[in-house]
Amino acid sequence: MIGSVEDDVLLLEEPNDNVYVNLRHTKDFQFVTVNTFSTTSSKVFLIDAANPLSGLTLIWECEGQAHCIVEHHRGILYLFTDASKDGQSVDHHYLLRSPLSTSGPRIWENVFVLEEDSVVEDVDFSDKYLALIIREGKNFRICSVTLPLPVGKGELNLKELNPQFLPLPQSVTQISPGPNYDFCSTTMRFTISSPVMPDAVVDYDLSNGTWNIIQQQNLLHERTRILYGTASSGRINQKLSSLIDVESDNNPWNELSEFYGWEHYDVPSHDGVMVPLTIVYSHSHRKENSNPGLLHGHGAYGELLDKRWRSELKSLLDRGWVIAYADVRGGGGRGKKWHHDGRSAKKQNAIEDYIASARFLMDKGIVKEDKLAGWGYSAGGLLVASAINQRPDLFRAAILKVPFLDPTNTLLYPILPLIAADYEEFGYPGDVDDFNAIRRYSPYDNIPKDTVFPAVLVTSSFSTRFGVWEAAKWAARVRERTIYDPECPVLLNLTTDIVEENRYLHCKESALETAFLLKVVGS
Q: Residue 243 has what pLDDT?
């Protein structure tokens, strides 16, 4: 609160605790947008930035919770949303437009016609160009078209606008736009992510198609070639003096596909739904029915599973490990239905998807039986722990990082941080049906008795974001109920640092996790 409140003017009041309000401005700074959304409805209001006391103008309203981003460009409003179309839920975003000034009811029209199996994942506006992140099947692309777009012609065929594409590696699994604050600039910044390439921060000039990698981790290709025995003696002598790679024309993206491969599979779950599974492995160490594996999972909040290259996993890859990522239901990437089918009373679907992915890895000989470990962070810890409860025979070890292990009790205390938002994701224990559903999948309430449990490293923090008692009581109960095996310890670490910017502590924790896996599972 700045200054006196006597002259303040009330523009919007939302007394309902279940309704969220979000404010942002359009990139041209002409308008302020106010988004209000709940599980039942979503609205977008517009405020003239030059005259904010003129009040709010409702420009969009739809049933259900929808993601809505509004931009303004030279008298045209653009809406990027995943709201239902004609009463039917959609599994992707799309772009709409409408004139700013309208005499009658506002009409929004679809902007682009795309080819089948192509969707717009994200958009970014500048004064002269529109950048689109497009997913074609499993491949991601960035293209740009010139603004303003033609009007009065109905839906536009993207091909007819002569889009300019940025050449990308086929292994790209995620593209994230940067802040791109300068609306008048022709250059936009993106982060390109891949399972076999360190994140590349790219400046892309939309006016001429040129691009430049301005930041990317250097993983010393020549040193890795020496490790794998693929470097010639002349190159070894030449490179050892500097240990710095020079970017070559045939590998401008600094891809690591020379050493590591990646593959994508569709795994049938218990109900026939196909679950995406991505694996990363070392070319020289992959052998059928012999490799250990680490299976990542999350499956909550509609969030994408992070499949970016992680340097801390290089040590495991170089020892023959297969790193796998299961995009189970409850997560993102396949729209709202995919998220809804793995949350609350349907959380068991996500657990079954994860178990199916684990079985697939062993049935196909990708990972050796009794050599599979699970890895889950936060809500992903709930997923992995629940899968272990139901199928402890599938896993040799697991790492549960600040896991959510006791939803039955934790959700009963609304004073705890973030609990109110978790009711929609995990269920409301005040409802009898939801309470019974939570009890059925809760890791703490379903620990099997008199069973040999996998080795587990469970870590937590005294941060207020996480309940440190959950990890402690879960570890104690596992030790109490399961059969003791000195080769399968249940270890508890309560000194985890969750500040992502503290890279030194992050390295220390990654080293602990790697040492645990190598000790328990081997290489």
A: 32
